[in-house]
UniProtKB/TrEMBL annotation:
<dbReference type="GO" id="GO:0007155">
    <property type="term" value="P:cell adhesion"/>
</dbReference>
<dbReference type="GO" id="GO:0007266">
    <property type="term" value="P:Rho protein signal transduction"/>
</dbReference>
<dbReference type="InterPro" id="IPR030045">
    <property type="entry name" value="CTNNAL1"/>
</dbReference>
<dbReference type="GO" id="GO:0005737">
    <property type="term" value="C:cytoplasm"/>
</dbReference>
<protein>
    <recommendedName>
        <fullName>Alpha-catulin</fullName>
    </recommendedName>
</protein>
<dbReference type="Pfam" id="PF01044">
    <property type="entry name" value="Vinculin"/>
</dbReference>
<dbReference type="InterPro" id="IPR001033">
    <property type="entry name" value="Alpha_catenin"/>
</dbReference>
<dbReference type="GO" id="GO:0051015">
    <property type="term" value="F:actin filament binding"/>
</dbReference>
<dbReference type="InterPro" id="IPR036723">
    <property type="entry name" value="Alpha-catenin/vinculin-like_sf"/>
</dbReference>
<keyword id="KW-0963">Cytoplasm</keyword>
<dbReference type="InterPro" id="IPR006077">
    <property type="entry name" value="Vinculin/catenin"/>
</dbReference>
<dbReference type="GO" id="GO:0045296">
    <property type="term" value="F:cadherin binding"/>
</dbReference>
<comment type="similarity">
    <text>Belongs to the vinculin/alpha-catenin family.</text>
</comment>
C-alpha cells in the first residue's frame, strides 16, 4: 500500500490532477495541500504495519486528530465563502460536506479507542479497515482541492470586477470635455488602477506557469507605463481639441490600455485570443531542442518515429532561419554562414535517415555504428547553427543599443517640434521609423534564440512596445510642431520619449538575460551592487549612477528651497522635507550605502514615499483653495502630475517580481519615478512660497483693516 500513498502524495503537487479532474494552477493552492498530503501519506505508510507500539499508536492518533481538526477549520472557511458568494453555494457546500465526512472517517480510523490488543505480544492492532483509509484519504484530497479551486474562483472574480471598474472609468476619461472633470475622474482612475495592480500582482506571483507569469508581467508593465502617457495625452487633447495628431496620440494610449486589460483577463480566465497565437509561434531555439530530442531518442527506439518525420522537422527548422537570412540588416558573411550550416545539417540528416532505414531493414534492435556517428554529427551541426544565430541576433542588438543610446532622432524631434518646424519633424520621423523597424526585427530575432518561454514573451513585449511607441512619439512631435508654445504638448512628447528610452534600457537587460541562458548562467538576483556593476550601459542618461546622482542633487535642491520658507511648520514644507530625505536614502542605496540594504527595503521606501507624496497633494489642494483662479490653475496642474506619479510609484512598489531582470527593472523604474516626483516638487516650492507670502500679507492687511474699523 506504500505505492498507493506515494501515488496520492504526488497527485496534487506532481500531476496536479485529482479524481475530480481539477487542475492546480496556483502556488497558494499547492502549498496549502502539501502538509495535508504529508500527513495522509504518514497514516497510509503506517497502515502497512498493523501492530504498533503505544508510542507509535499515540503519534498516529495525533496525526489523525490533527487532520480532522485542520479539515474542520478549513471547511468553516469554505462555508463562509459559500455564504458570501451565492453562485458557488451549492458546489462549495457539497465539497465542504465531503471534506468534513472524509476528515471524520480518518479521525475514527485512527482513534485509539478502536484499537485491539494482540494476544501474542500485547501490541495494539489498528487500521483493520485498510480499504476504508485509502478511500477516506482519496475523498479528502479530492474534496479539499475542490474547495481550494472554488475559492480561487473568487480571486478571479475580484480581478474581473476590478478590471470592469477600471474600464468604466477609462470610458469616462476618454469622453471628458473639461479640465475640472478630467482631474476629478483621473484621481478616481488612479485609485482603481492601484487596486487592480495589487490584485494582479498577487495573482502573477501565485501563478505556477512561468509562461503565463511572463505574459501577466508584460501586460501589467504596459498598464503601469501607460498611466502617465494617458495623463499627458488626454491633457494635450483637452488643451488642443481640434488637433488631429493630438487625438491620434490619445486614442493610441487608450487602445493600448484596453488591450493590456483584456490580456490580463485572458490569462486569469484562461481564455484564448488571437494574441495568444503569436506567443505560441515556435522559435528556432525550441525547434532545435525538439529536433535534437527526436534524433537522440533513436538510441532508445529505432521504430518510434518515421525517418521522414525527422527530415521534415529539420526543414521546418531551416525555414524559420529565413527571418535571419531574408533580413536586409544581416551581413553577407553572416547570411552565408547560416546557409552553410543549414546545408550541412541537411546532409548529415540525410545520412542519418539512410543509415536508419538500413538498420530498420535488418530489424536491428539498437543503432548501428553508422547511425551513432550520424546522430552525433547531426546534433553537433544544429548546435553550431544555434550558436551562429545567437551570435547574429545578440550582435545586432548590441550594435543597435550603442547607436540608439545616443537618442539623436529623439533630441532632433524635440528641437524641431519646439521650433514649430513641421518639415524637420517629418524628416526625423522617417529616421525614427527606420530605427523602430530595426528594433522590431531585432526583437523578433532575439525571440528565436531567447532560450526560455518567459524570455520569448518578454521579446514579443519589447517588439510590440517599439512598434506602438514609435508612431506615438511622431504624433506627439507633430502636435508640438503645430503648437510650439504649448507646455503640455512639450511635456507629452517628453513622456513618450522617456518610454522609448526606458524600453531600450529594458532591452539591454533582456539581452544580458538571454546571454545568461545561452551560457548556462541562470543565477538569482544576488546583490544590487553586483548587478549595477555588470549592467550594460545603454547611454549615460539611463545609467544608474547618473540616476542616483540626479536624485541626490534634486533632494539637495528641495532642501535648499524649503529653507527659504519663513513658515517652516507649513505642511507643504514638512512633507517636501520628508520626500527629499527618503529620496536621499534611495540615492545612497544606488551606492551600496545607507539604511536601505536590500531591494525589498528600497521598494518599501518607495511605497512610503508615494504615500507621503499623496499627502503633499492633499496639502496643495487645501492651499490652492486660498488662491485666485490663474494661480490656482498652475498649482492644480502640477498637483495632477504629482498625483499620477505617486500612484505610478505606488503601483510599481506593490508589484511582486521574481528574477534578476524583473527586479532590476523595478528598481530602475522606482528611482526614475522618484526623480520625476522630486522634479515636480522642486518646481512647486518656490511658486508656492511666493504665493504663501502673498496670502499671508493679504491676511495681515485684512486684520489691520478690521482693527482700524473697530
Amino acid at each position: 500500500m506504500a505505492s498507493a500513498s506515494a501515488g496520492m502524495a504526488s497527485s496534487p503537487c506532481g500531476n496536479s490532477n485529482f479524481d475530480s479532474g481539477l487542475e492546480i494552477k496556483t502556488r497558494s493552492v499547492e502549498q496549502t495541500l502539501i502538509p495535508l498530503v504529508s500527513q495522509i501519506t504518514t497514516l497510509i505508510n503506517h497502515k502497512d504495519k498493523p501492530k504498533k507500539s503505544e508510542r507509535t499508536l499515540a503519534a498516529i492518533h495525533r496525526v489523525g486528530q490533527a487532520v480532522s481538526v485542520a479539515v474542520g477549520r478549513f471547511v468553516a472557511v469554505g462555508e463562509a465563502i459559500a455564504t458570501e458568494n451565492q453562485e458557488l453555494k451549492d458546489e462549495m457546500g457539497q465539497a465542504c460536506f465531503e471534506a468534513r465526512r472524509a476528515g471524520d472517517a480518518i479521525a475514527q480510523l485512527t482513534d485509539v479507542g478502536s484499537a485491539v490488543p494482540s494476544q501474542s505480544d500485547g501490541r495494539v492492532t489498528v487500521f483493520s479497515d485498510r480499504t476504508g483509509m485509502v478511500k477516506a484519504a482519496r475523498l479528502l484530497l479530492s474534496s479539499v482541492t475542490k474547495v481550494l479551486v472554488l475559492a480561487d474562483r473568487i480571486v478571479i472574480k475580484q480581478i474581473i470586477t476590478s478590471r470592469n471598474k477600471v474600464l468604466v472609468t477609462l470610458d469616462h476619461l476618454e469622453r471628458v470635455s473639461t479640465f475640472q472633470e478630467f482631474v476629478q475622474i483621473f484621481s478616481q482612475f488612479g485609485n482603481e488602477m492601484v487596486e487592480f495592480a495589487h490584485l494582479t500582482g498577487d495573482r502573477q506571483n501565485d501563478l505556477k506557469d512561468e509562461k503565463k507569469k511572463a505574459r501577466m508581467a508584460a501586460a501589467r508593465a504596459v498598464l503601469e507605463k501607460c498611466t502617465m502617457m494617458l495623463l499627458t495625452a488626454s491633457k494635450t487633447c483637452l488643451r488642443h481639441p481640434d488637433c488631429e495628431s493630438a487625438r491620434i496620440n490619445k486614442d493610441a494610449v487608450f487602445h493600448r490600455m484596453r488591450c493590456a486589460l483584456e490580456q490580463v483577463i485572458e490569462i486569469v480566465t484562461e481564455a484564448r485570443s488571437c494574441g495568444e497565437n503569436k506567443i505560441l509561434t515556435a522559435s528556432i531555439y525550441n525547434g532545435i531542442k525538439d529536433f535534437k530530442s527526436s534524433v537522440e531518442c533513436l538510441r532508445e527506439n529505432l521504430y518510434s518515429l518515421a525517418p521522414q518525420s525527422v527530415a521534415g522537422q529539420l526543414e521546418a527548422l531551416v525555414e524559420r532561419t529565413e527571418d535571419f537570412t531574408d533580413s536586409a540588416y544581416t551581413s553577407h558573411e553572416q547570411r552565408q554562414a547560416i546557409l552553410g550550416l543549414c546545408q550541412l545539417a541537411r546532409q548529415d540528416t540525410q545520412q542519418l535517415v539512410h543509415a536508419w532505414v538500413e538498420a530498420q531493414s535488418v530489424h536491428a534492435k539498437e543503432p548501428t555504428e553508422d547511425m551513432e556517428v550520424s546522430i552525433l554529427k547531426t546534433c553537433q551541426n544544429v548546435n553550431d547553427l544555434r550558436r551562429e544565430l545567437h551570435k547574429v541576433a545578440v550582435g545586432r542588438a548590441s550594435d543597435l543599443l550603442k547607436v540608439h543610446g545616443e537618442q539623436l532622432p529623439l533630441r532632433a524631434l524635440k528641437a524641431a517640434g519646439a521650433e514649430g518646424n513641421l518639415e524637420a519633424v517629418a524628416e526625423y520621423s522617417r529616421t525614427l521609423t527606420e530605427q523602430k523597424e530595426q528594433l522590431v526585427e531585432t526583437c523578433r530575432l532575439l525571440c528565436h534564440v531567447s532560450g526560455t518561454e518567459p524570455l520569448e514573451i518578454t521579446c514579443i513585449h519589447a517588439e510590440e512596445t517599439f512598434h506602438v511607441i514609435g508612431p506615438q512619439i511622431i504624433s506627439a512631435a507633430q502636435t508640438l510642431a503645430l503648437h510650439p508654445s504649448s507646455k503640455i504638448a512639450k511635456e507629452n512628447l517628453e513622456v513618450f520619449c522617456e518610454a522609448w528610452e526606458s524600453q531600450l534600457c529594458d532591452m539591454a537587460l533582456l539581452l544580458r538575460e538571454i546571454n545568461d541562458v545561452f551560457e548556462g548562467r541562470r543565477g538569482k538576483f544576488a546583490s544590487w551592487i553586483h548587478v549595477c556593476k555588470n549592467k550594460d550601459k545603454v547611454s549615460e542618461q539611463t545609467s544608474m549612477a547618473k540616476l542616483g546622482l540626479e536624485l541626490r542633487l534634486l533632494s539637495s535642491d528641495v532642501d535648499t528651497e524649503v529653507e527659504k520658507w519663513e513658515e517652516q511648520e507649513h505642511d507643504i514644507v514638512r512633507q517636501s522635507q520628508s520626500l527629499a530625505s527618503m529620496a536621499y536614502n534611495m540615492y545612497l542605496f544606488t551606492r551600496g550605502e545607507g539604511l536601505l540594504k536590500t531591494t525589498l527595503d528600497l521598494f518599501h521606501q518607495a511605497e512610503v514615499l508615494s504615500e507621503e507624496g499623496l499627502q503633499l497633494c492633499s496639502s496643495l489642494r487645501t492651499f490652492s483653495a486660498q488662491l485666485v483662479d490663474e494661480e490656482k490653475s498652475v498649482v492644480m496642474t502640477e498637483m495632477e502630475k504629482l498625483v499620477a506619479l505617486c500612484q505610478q510609484l505606488q503601483m510599481g512598489a506593490k508589484t511582486p517580481v521574481q528574477g534578476k531582470t524583473a527586479t532590476f527593472q523595478k528598481v530602475d523604474s522606482s528611482i526614475q519615478t522618484t526623480r520625476s516626483i522630486l522634479t515636480v516638487v522642486l518646481s512647486l516650492l518656490p511658486f508656492c512660497n511666493k504665493l504663501n507670502k502673498k496670502v499671508t500679507l493679504s491676511e495681515q492687511d485684512m486684520t489691520l483693516s478690521d482693527w482700524h474699523s473697530d
